[in-house]
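Form 12-C: Joint structure prediction
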Amino acid sequence: MFRHRWSILSLLILVICILLLVATGCDDSPVDVDEVDEGEEANFLKVGIVGPMGFVQGDHSWYGAELAKEEINAAGGINVGDKNYMIQTVMVDTNELQSVDDAVSAVERAIAVDDVDLFIGGFRTEAVLPMTEVAVDNNKIFMIAGAADRSLLEGRVDVDYDRYKYLFRIAPPNNIELVTLSFILLNEVANSVRAELGIDTPRVAILMEMLTWNEPLVQIAQQQIPAMGMEVVGVWRPSATATDISTELTEIQSQGAHIIYMANSGPVAITYGRQWGELEIPACSVGLSVENQKAGYLEATGGYGEYDMSLNTYGRAAATEKSIPFWDTFMETYDDTPSHSAGTYDALYLIKDAIENIGTIDSEALAEEIANADYEGALGRVVFDEVHDVTWGPGFVTGFSNQWQDGELVAVWPYEWSPAEGVEITYQGAVPYKIPPRVIDYWKDR
Amino acid sequence: MIENILVRGLLNSCVYAMIAIGFSLIFGVARIINLSHTAFYMVAAYGIFLFNVQAGFDPILSIVLSILVVSALGVLSYRYLIDPVRERETSTLIVTIAIALMMQEIIFILFGGHYRGAVALISGHTTLIGVRVTNQYILTLAVVMTALIIVWYLLMKTRLGIAIRAAAQDREIANLMGVDVRKVAIHTMTIAVVLAALAGAMVAPIYVLEPHMWINPLVIILAIVILGGLGSIKGTFISAFILGFTEVLVVIFIPGGAFLKVTFALALMVIILLIRPEGLFGVFLEGER
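Section 2 - Result
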């Protein structure tokens, strides 16, 4: 009986270990679907749209590309000398959130079976790295639209240009620029707190999910925030899959935080938005939330995500004259707001222009042309730097910050942004940031 | 801080207890380790999202429909997939995990991998001894208590309860005494699945709905039932509180290590098992020959 009991216990403990492994990303459930629009007589440029389909990152990559494809094909396609190329999108479902191996296989298959000419997309750094190796092995352009890590380009394009010249990133700005951008946004909110609540030194709680991508941000924030005239009251690192962070939030409240500086990409972003609002935590929320960027965020948070603010690649404000029309068309077509992986839209247009300029789809010539591109897209003016990364800054791509106000996701930055002495940038359509009324009510008389 | 620990610990523990008791019950009376238990909980949560948010049904009606659908699923899966292999523990484990994975993939196909939320039955929050608590959590607490009382009454005061307990003590003798053991097992499975579905209904507005949402709770409830003593309802309840409070203490005292709260809870389980291998209230196989 004793041995029998231990055999059952051993089995159960083994199951716990396996489940923990599965929960942390070793699960394997690819849904590999390829959808190809077959043409009859025209020439086709086959573009592989890379991403984890079924998830927001992959879906938005696909949506952005589909929008661009429909518009370009409807306008006659790509003119290459005396030929007309129609764009054919190939869905490359990478399952990269679950399995890096699946991602590599999907790209290999797209080259070997679907005969894809070039790739756009890729979200998870660990998966994009080997996927781009496969692409460059086959001399295929890979335009990253999703993964932010600078090392996907730096240390590759600059070190071995002949091999890696096919790699580019159009969106989002790299992780170093994202840190800079998130500090700018934090500072904007802190200035509002100072001005409207009369608090000279706002107290900041850092609440960021425990994932590798935001580790540098946590380290830098603890040093940088005091230098910005604020005080850090604590650092909270819930799991990316945490279903309840009310303990963290009530502790943040008891520490007297005026601002919560967050960076969440997993399901915890929904948990956070809902509980932050429902518990009426009297602190402004600013940072980077993947879920905040979606139209369904308010519904997913039960309406409690109102006033949550996050940076984004797109916003309903005019970085260029294409920005607002793109935002509206995307909303109208997909009933969703474009997140950063929808950068596939601008990528496809940029590639179209480059092909028409050189009159060939040859990868080598195309890579040279894209490297020198100066393209005005929905996300801003796209110019690539020495490692083929999108240039961030005033006059180029700046990104946006969006806040939920009255049930709408509105652009609140750049709004009277002063990046240098005598310079002030406001994108048409952007509105002022609003401190949540409960935060004002709670702090104004204290 | 003490208030926060007390209130959060209590709420956290009750949610765990709610999910774990059905699992413990089906093991205690039918000796089935049902690893698909939290998958039924997930399906119930998605059912509420489907009926309430997508179809626009009344929230209460959505809960009832969801529980009915999940109960039917539970009974069918027991009858046709689990019962044929229930005498072989390893096969039961594999079959039930396969059922869970199938449900996960079906949910993914139907709803995608997007994170979703359901609407709370009671929105807003209440302040308890200085700690803000969402009203849905308070409702969950009330439902857990009510469910436990009903389960206790069912087991102790009804003919079905007597049959269930008899079958749990000795299936062969119960069978000889005229108890339809197979039917009792189906009833027990139904009760367990209803409890899982009820838990899913209560936490759907609190937690985030996504196709892998069944995995983390399963890890925790396995830890709870092992710690409490396999099959012991009392042990399950108490160990839910031990692990629930442990998690809260980790978050409060090690905020930068909040992601380690499950790890700490599992480490505590291992330590207690080393001291008391049968768990805190082990009744495991005591009545079996």
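Section 3 - Comments
DSSP finds eleven helices and two strands in chain B. The first helix of chain B runs from residue 2 to 30.
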